[in-house]
Write a structure and sequence with these properties.
Elements: H1 27-34, H2 38-80, H3 97-103, H4 106-137, H5 144-150, H6 153-156, H7 159-169, H8 176-183, H9 195-223, H10 227-235, H11 240-251, H12 253-268, H13 272-276, H14 294-304, H15 308-356, H16 362-378
Transmembrane segments: 55-78, 116-137, 149-169, 189-208, 251-271, 313-332
InterPro entries: ABC_transporter_permease (IPR051393), MetI-like (IPR000515), MetI-like_sf (IPR035906)
Family: Belongs to the binding-protein-dependent transport system permease family.
Length: 379
């Protein structure tokens, strides 16, 4: 019998013992070794810089906004729900009683009416005239820089100086405007005692100061409209008015929305012009409060009557009114813009339909005539 013996593997002839190869490192291990020590810290700092540095760059704006804008807004609301006196300070908590008292006050509604009346008399003509001036300055004029800088001169003058000049010009006895009216045999106007004439005079001050500023903003937007559009429209036979209403105005629509919103905010916060329009009056806003705006009424409540609680309530209600009107302007402007884009998108479709009809353009009709001629020749 043969005896079987177990031999260790690889002990036979021709079999060589091979050494085991070390395992290859994984990519994660290589990355970990590569970023070990100082390199790892440098990589971490670069990632943090890439991720958080943009927030650091814009943080000064938000810090200033929180200190100058957000904190006063919240603090004003806290004052509005308390019986706060100018000299005595904080009093009892009254909730929404200050708001209810102002909503039932005829002086508040009178100031709101005056504010909206002056705003409409100033904002609408201001935007129309500013658009016209911007269109004129956009043409090839001589001394462009001179004319563009000259429209900005009224904005540079301080509001106090503007108000004093217009207050003397609109004086009822010795004013320049009434003297000119009497030269043409017209009766003098009670600019400082009647409601509508006083609103018209204050609106004239606002328009004189802000029209040139808005005109330069609209001019910058008009210069951004591509000139190729105007040239192609002129070649097609479009006149100056048609190019203005079909190319220029749609091209400056975002800037126009910005100007409308800023004019709305500034018009509803008007204070300096009605305050200094009649400096001799003991009542802010005229003897009968005929041009007392909401901000002027707020100032009268706070510093003449010492009722900071009701004045803060008026400030918050005015803030909400401005927000609502601004949102309404934005939605209305967006709706107008979307409707304009839809009309612009439908025009190529109509042209394509008209081109496919025989007789509407020369190409299809000419193609049919040539086909009929070939058929006759072959026949």
């Amino acid at each position: 019998m043969s005896t079987l013996t177990n031999k260790p593997p690889g002990s036979g002839t021709g079999h060589l013992r091979r050494k085991a190869r070390p395992a290859s490192p994984t990519p994660e291990k290589l990355l970990e070794e590569r970023h070990s020590g100082p390199q790892r810290r440098r990589h971490l700092f670069s990632r943090l810089d890439y991720k958080y540095s943009p927030y650091l760059y814009i943080s000064p704006f938000f810090i200033l906004f929180g200190l100058v804008g957000l904190f006063p807004l919240v603090y004003t609301f806290v004052v509005s729900i308390n019986d706060w006196d100018l000299l005595g300070g904080a009093g009892d908590w009254v909730g929404l009683e200050n708001y209810a008292a102002e909503l039932s006050s005829p002086l508040f509604w009178n100031s709101l009416f005056n504010t909206f009346s002056i705003f409409l008399l100033s904002a609408i003509p201001q935007l129309v005239i500013a658009t016209f001036i911007a269109a004129m300055l956009d043409q090839n004029l001589r001394a462009k820089t001179f004319w563009r800088m000259s429209v900005l001169v009224p904005y540079v003058v301080t509001p106090v100086a503007v108000t004093l000049i217009f207050s003397n010009a609109f004086d009822e006895k010795y004013g320049l405007i009434n003297n000119l009216l009497q030269l043409v045999n017209l009766d003098p106007v009670a600019w400082k005692t009647s409601v509508f004439p006083s609103h018209l005079a204050i609106a004239a001050m606002v328009n004189w100061r802000w029209t040139g500023y808005n005109a330069l903003i609209l001019l910058a937007a008009m210069q951004a409209v591509p000139r190729e559009l105007h040239e192609s429209a002129a070649i097609d036979g479009a006149g100056m008015l048609r190019r203005f209403f079909s190319i220029t105005l749609p091209g400056i629509r975002p800037t126009m929305i910005f100007v409308i919103i800023t004019a709305t905010i500034g018009g509803l916060q008007i204070f300096t012009e009605p305050k200094l329009f009649n400096a001799s009056s003991s009542v802010p806003g005229g003897p009968d409060r005929q041009y007392q705006t909401t901000v002027l009424y707020l100032w009268d409540l706070a510093f003449n009557r010492g009722d900071f609680g009701r004045a803060s309530a008026v400030a918050w209600m005015l803030f909400l009114i401005i927000i609502l009107i601004g949102v309404a302007n934005f939605l209305l402007s967006g709706k107008i813009a979307s409707s304009g884009e839809k009309r612009a998108g439908r025009r190529p479709m109509r042209r394509g339909r008209n081109a496919s009809r025989p007789g509407m353009t020369g190409k299809p009709a000419g193609g049919q005539d040539m086909t009929e001629t070939r058929r006759r020749d072959h026949g």
